[in-house]
Fold these 3 entries.
Entry 1:
Amino acid sequence: MSEQTAQQSTPRTALVTGATRGIGRAIAQDLARDHVVLVGGRSAEDVERVRGELAGLGPGTRAFVADVSDDEQVAAAWTPLRDEFHGLNVLVHSAGIAPQSRVADAPREMWEQIFDVNVISVAQLTRLTLPELRAAHGDVVAINSGSGFTSNPSAALYSGTKFALRALTDALREEERENGVRVSSVHPGRVATDMQEQLHEYMGREYRPEEWIRPEQIAAAVRLVVDADRTSEVEVVSVRPSGMH
């Protein structure tokens, strides 16, 4: 078998963190059509539930069970997958948390936790998988937010991490060009997920999911990024609610 034929017969792989709910689940479902999806989540039960939902859609799934902020768990989850596939075509960072607090009320622990999950864990997982991403000339896609461009009252914690995530991806993009790894940042506006429902509850507002972006639309943006011809790179995508519900 020629090297080209072997490459064509090897299924593409995609690791999606936060794949058991909301945006991450929609992305996993979309990519599962033509990728082996490594379904990332903290709960083995939730990961297996999603794997069951994706069964039969494409070339298959694998479990990636780990708390992304625990380096030992992440390494333990990644090592057998690395040894099985020897390359990674797509890494989607969708795991994240969004606690709300005014600066005057936010203790150090809140800052440390959200930066650990939303920024440091992204950097560490990317660093861990870069050899395989380079081998496959893969794509790194960070699910950022409209809060990566602006901030509002009670949003300093979340927006702070998303500004930092934008800086991380901008730097990584330039660093990895010579290695053939593309880096993209997807910035959704408000999406109809349980996180959005919790945010509305915090703000004391009525939650109407039909007013917000469907998670499948963010999955479509990720698909645009990873399917782009290798002569191009979709660096930043911003998806906003249209208001035309």
Note: Strands lie at 12-16, 35-41, 61-65, 90-93, 139-143, 182-188, 236-239.
Entry 2:
Amino acid sequence: MTTESSAMERRMEGQRFIGIDGGGTKTVCILGEPDGTILAMSRGESSSVKSRPWEEVQRVLLTLIQDVLEKTGTPASQLGGVFLGLAGSDRPEDRQRVQDWLRTELPDEVAITVHNDAVTALIAGTWGQRGIALISGTGSIAYGFDPATDTFVRVGGWGYLLGDEGSGFDLGRQALLAVMRAYDGRGEATALTSLVLDRWSLERPEQLINTIYGQDNIRTAIADGSKLVVRAAAEGDSVAVGLVEEAVECLEALVRTAATRMGLPLTGDPLASHGVMTLVLSGGLFNDAWFLKQFLATPTMRTGAFDVQLLERPPVIGAYLLALQEHGLELTEAMKTRMEASITRLL
């Protein structure tokens, strides 16, 4: 540890920091020490500000913060900072809304930073080094960062009404459309019909109307159906295969666009002048080996320009690390080791 970093840690002694990763399906909150030791973790529902009622987002976030404080006996006055990576919170007005509300719940001296959840996934995957994070969970987004030029690039992630192509929600919704079209006679018969009906314990496709619209969180419920599409595609259903191919192409376009905007050439020999770019994959769809294989077979992934890594650390690690860095603390190898060891004990 450098002398400057050691002095910074001494000044922060006694303070604790909170990192929050809030996606379209779940929210994870951790509290830890300045040296990278994570003391407590709490999990809750989605805190996406674009797909959940604001009151629900407030309830989830406040409940998780209170839980980790209580688990560790930490008074709110001991907090040095809170970093929140929340789905749907990339715009200044969204960040300001969350910050203004939390300032009424926490002491004035607590630093509060809000960004989107793609940032937390990227930082968790690269430890703050150059790279691109591609998320395909309930929603989808590509987010790139190059510390050498202080370049941030965001592609996609415009929400389930304006974007999120290649996401779990998008794929699940397309599956439901395929089922209804086949039922009408407007579309090709598909194995998705029986899979979807079995999933909801229904007898006829028209029963899906009440079932889907009656869900407490429609977006999450529909996104869960993406697993059925991948299963049917892997088994050769032509309709499902087409849907997966379209989703993979959309995700490929997110990465290609982000890389191009970061100045990484995807033709010729990208390694000669720019080196390999780390690509961190996160989200439920990439947890399926067959889906991952389809994505890695795309032309962009075959250029040799990317070092592709599945995110092995929880994205919330990135939020916690950013909370520390907001206070000027330099990341060390010892801190990385403590973070990984302590988060493993809590999982």
Note: The longest strand covers residues 38-45.
Entry 3:
Amino acid sequence: MDPILNLVAQNIPEPLREPAVELLTKVIGSQCSTLTASCLKLAVSKALGSGIVAASSIVKVPQILSILSAGSGAGISLLSYLLETTSFLISLAYNFRNGFPFSTYGETVFMCIQNLVITLLILHFGRKAGVGAGVLALFASAGYALFNSNYIPHDLLSTLQLLTIPISLGSKIPQILTNARNGSTGQLSAFAVFNYLAGSLARLYTTLTEVDDPLIFWGFLLSTGLNVVLASQVLMYWGKKGDASKAKKRQ
């Protein structure tokens, strides 16, 4: 990609060069005091990161609406959401405490909130509202500890971040197995699945460009692979209802 960006940087018309440098310097900083491939690469990463954060604020709203409309969380793995939210919460604390740019992890804030809403809805329609209250209290307590270095020192937080890789991967497997068992994706939102895949692909680029941390990169890379499997299942089972009654009974 660098040769393409070099070509773009060298061929920006002179009247536009100075305003472009001024704008990029204000938005990105001194790294873009001159138009180079590295500057444009960083600009692309910032734009992608901001887009991911913005899209994440609504990415799971269709899933929430689908559950509310059906009055059921049938076909949606509760374990998947519990594991994924745990992974998001640890990653959010790790990125924040390391001072990484918000554009490289901001979506985890919105994902955590939406995941908790979906989890509570699944429990509510499964007649387990009391369990939902306990889950909410547990995540609130864990979040407080993760953001406080007096409770969880940085070395322990790094270890927990390493554990988010198997946790994140494990969060996808129950949903994949549920889809395969039911022969359908139930109330799983196709919009959320495909946007999730697009976001994870873009995150690989922004992580390589702005975050020099292999723990985060490998987590996104492996997660992207399972997101591809989920997206494939959505296409495979498109329009198929599967055994909805059994799915609802299991849920």
Note: The two ends are 46 Å apart (CA to CA).
